[in-house]
Amino acid sequence: MTHQIILVFHLLAATVWVGGHLFLAIRYLPEALKKKDASVLVNFKNKFEPVGLPSLLTLLVTGILMAYHYGVTFTHWFSFSNGIEKVVSAKLLLLFLTVGMAINAQLFVFPKIKSDKLRPVAFQIIAITVIGVAMLILGSWVRIGGL
Known about the structure:
membrane, 4 helices, mainly alpha
């Protein structure tokens, strides 16, 4: 029962994180690019962060708890020795990439964002969205034993 509760929180957090980025990439990014208006993206970022960052933290905590439930403890991370370990390890690598990109966005991309130079932020948005979807797909493979 505990695993199921953790899974529900993990799925709710994934809904917020991945859904928010899909919405950003599909709805707001094209508008910002068309209008050449960085404020569209900055406004979304400012509204999304208070729910997006806690959802990312929830994904981290619940993901680790579920990995331990499946027997993939810290000592087995990145061993890639069975299907579940492959999924957990791949998701951890993508998580590290996500965190690195989040830090990059906070420190370098958004502080320097200009309406006439939206390509770096567009790349960031598309990349983080693709990573989120990839993590979602990887997570779905746990049900069938991993990769």
